[in-house]
Amino acid sequence: MDPTIEAVEGDITTQRLDAIVNAANSSLLGGGGVDGAIHAAAGPALLRECRELRAGRYRDGLPVGEAVATGAGDLPARWVIHTVGPNRHRGQTDPALLAACFTHSLDVATELGAGSIAFPAISAGVYGWDADEVARVAVDAVRGRVDGGEPVPGLIRFVLFGQRVHDAFRAALQA
Ligand code: AR6
C-alpha cells in the first residue's frame, strides 16, 4: 500500500510518531533552529547518545547527506534520526546532497522498523536554502523511493515551522 505523505504546520518536537528527523550539523552536538529545539525538548539523554556517536563511529563528524539514529530522550517519538543538510553559505548547492538527507533518513527509519516519520524543512533555515526548492527536492526524494517500490514508513509527515514553508510543501505535494 502506498504511504501517506502529508505536510502540516507545527513543532516537530511534539510529534507522536516513531521517528523524527533532526536537521543537525556535523558535530552532532546540538545547535540552533530545529536542532536546538529537539535537544531542549529531549533533554540530556539525547546529547549523551550523540556524544557517544562522536566518540565512536562519527569521530570526524556526520558527513553531509548521511543519517544516523539515536533514542529520543524525553520526546514523545521513539527515535531521532540526525542528518546534516548542505549549507548554501559554504557553497553546498547540489540538490542531490539535500535529497540524500531525505532518502538516507528513510533508509534508517526502515531499518529501525519505524512505521511513521516526521521531517523538518532540512537546510531551509540557517543553511540558507530556499523553502520552495527544499520542498521540491524533499517531495521528489520521497516519491522516488515510493515509486521505486522500496520499503518506507507508512506515514511520512513534513512538519513545517510557519505558513510560508508549509505553503511551499503543500504546493510541492500537489504538483
Ligand atoms: N519544528 C519544525 N521546524 C522547525 C522547528 C521546530 N521546532 N524549529 C525550526 N524549524 P534550521 P538548517 C524550521 O535552521 O537550515 C542548526 O543550528 C526552521 O524554521 O533548524 O538545516 C543546526 O545545528 C526552518 O524552516 O536547519 C545546524 O548548524 C527549518 O526548520 C543548522 O542549524 C530548518 O531550519 C542547520 O540548518
From TrEMBL:
The protein's name in its UniProt record: O-acetyl-ADP-ribose deacetylase (Regulator of RNase III)
SUPFAM superfamilies in alphabetical order: Macro domain-like (SSF52949)
InterPro entries per the UniProt record, alphabetical: Macro_dom (IPR002589), Macro_dom-like (IPR043472)
CDD domains registered for this protein in UniProt: Macro_OAADPr_deacetylase
PROSITE patterns: MACRO
Macro domain ranges (all copies): 1-175
Highest taxon of source: Bacteria
UniProt source species: Ornithinicoccus hortensis
Organism lineage string: Bacteria, Bacillati, Actinomycetota, Actinomycetes, Micrococcales
